[in-house]
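Here's my example:
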Amino acid sequence: MPRRAGLGLSLAAGLLALGATALSPRAAPGTRAELVAELAIAKTAATQGLSGLELSADGTSSRLVADRGWRLDVTIARRDEIPVALRVSAPHPLTGPDGRPLEGRAETDAEALALAPDGTLYVAFEGDHRILRWAPGAVRPEALDPPPDAAAYPENGGIEALALGPDGALYAIPERWTEDGAIPVYRHDARGWTRAASLLPQGRFHPSGADFGPDGQLYLLERAFDGPFGFRSRVRRIALGPDGATEDSVLLETGSGRHGNLEGLAVWRDKAGAIRLSLVSDDNGLAIQRNQFVEYRVVSGAAGL
């Protein structure tokens, strides 16, 4: 994670320029996330490195992207709204602006996914840091102008989270870029990129996925690597206003190794009106790591996780 001397002054200057105050994430009072299901995803060449997730409004179908340059469609069988089985489609290769399938690690390393209501698909890549946009039914994507500071991202620390806001704008969050001591949340619309918010990092957690929920709030998935003990995962719920984040609360924080390397997040509402957090893990192509679909339900109550 790149940092500079005089961090406090740099952070203060950056936040003053934004016109916002970055909040420290805190526990959400009276709210917790309750595990609903944890399903294994069969390991194949196409399912290595699952990193981005979008889910239908009823939670029965999803779209995934993988580090090897694939897009996959998944059907989710549910019983009483609990996921019980997954059916993964044949993979579709992601293409470049020339219409050819992407090749090589720098081209194929898809890390984040966002799907617009009209079918427009956005995918963010690391290595060659960029965001591609496929119009509905298009084979050839177009490249968006890169977010601010993209040229300075570390090789394995670029845009890790994409989300489409209720305003129709695209939001992008890098994994390891905290040049002014805060995690930037970038917003893209017809006028280009602006910085919508600054989020304070905490501990060893880094952004790995994001989605806007049906409540209009931004949900941020983070993970921390604890060496031989595995990964910890955390989900923050963030309210955004005109001048940045107005609330930043932690809904879920797991212990080391509770799940795999969770990188994709989709947020939706079940038939009972509760918020669901659906997540997918990236096995990094390693036999010792897990391919998983995990789901939590946000409930009220004082009990801990």
